[in-house]
Amino acid sequence: MGIINAGEFIETVYFKGLQISLMAAGDGTEVIYHKLQPGSSWAMTPEDNWEGFEYFYILSGKLSHRTDDDIVEMKAGQAFFESPIQKYSIFTAEENTEFIYVTSQPVFHYYSQCSRDLMELAISIEEKDGYTVDHCERIKQYSMLVGEALDLNRKQITRLNLASFFHDVGKVRVPLEILQKPSKLTEDEWDIMKKHTTFGRDLLEETKIPVLCEVGLIVEQHHERYDGKGYPKGLKKDEISIEASIISVVDSFDAMTTDRVYKKGKSAEEAFQEILNNRGTMYHPLVVDTFIALKEKILNYEKGEIL
Residue limits of the HD-GYP domain (predicted)? Predict the structure, then answer.
């Protein structure tokens, strides 16, 4: 039973482990209830021309507040505020967590529309590509593991969190007869399939949300190769964002170990070896080394354990 009753909300939207509900609004100020499931994240990000005061108070549960310098555990009864937000801050629920968020500038309908748009994109991918929903969640989990191990800053971690989940969002614009073809694609069909990276960038940029526009650049790069032989632009080495380099490795690993209609997946051990064999050619060497170092954690997740 939650602390807040659903009947007290003016409007509610849901998105992958997150519930947001408008409780009260007036004179530009909004009071918004949040409920996060374990492992779900919520971020506060700086934006140009934003001068609002932002405050939240934890009703129940536990959050990990991650900044560039530290990780702080926050429990029920604790609060956080900024006026305005100056740095990227990401909060991850360690258990079912409820908090009240207060902002001096209205954000809920912008926020809720964003959530609805993203949910529609996620549902569209699930409907088109049967394995994608679990695949995207695993990519996010593995990517966050690698990003934390590489000590990425909070801005990078925020972008990685979103880009890893939505890396294949452009597949919604790939014709079904190509996306769901049970046999090998022809050269022309493969050329169309490869466009999903740029389609993904376009979709995210169409939201006009600054952080999603940044995420779109990463999504477009997740099939680039360290040796410059990838697509769509043939970028190489450090021309590729570190976030995209991370997604490239974990996406390949998951694709290798997933059974498809036309082929049986490799074992995890075989996939790890394949990743290692392509260190410095397909994949960024540092990302490969970090991914291999996390092998036991990843194998445990494959067995159903929580990261």
Answer: 110-307
User: pTM here?
Assistant: 0.76
Domain segments of the chain: what residues? Answer: 6-106, 116-302
What lies within 8 Å, CB to CB, of 206 at 6+ separation is: none
The residues, ordered by sequence, that sit 6+ positions from 81 with a Cβ below 8 Å of its Cβ are 53, 54, 55, 56
One CATH from 2.60.120.10, 1.10.390.10, 2.40.50.140, 3.40.910.10 for 6-106: 2.60.120.10
Work out the angle at residue 86's Cα, subtended by the Cα atoms of residues 13 and 37, and round it to the nearest 5 degrees.
30
Q: What is the pLDDT along the chain (307 residues), one digit of tens a residue?
A: 455 555 567 888 777 778 888 999 888 899 999 999 988 888 877 777 777 788 999 999 999 987 777 788 999 999 988 887 777 788 889 999 999 999 988 888 777 777 677 667 766 776 676 555 577 778 888 999 999 999 998 889 889 988 998 898 898 899 989 988 888 899 999 999 999 999 999 988 887 777 888 999 999 999 999 999 999 999 999 999 999 999 999 999 998 988 766 677 889 999 999 999 999 999 999 999 999 999 999 988 776 665 5
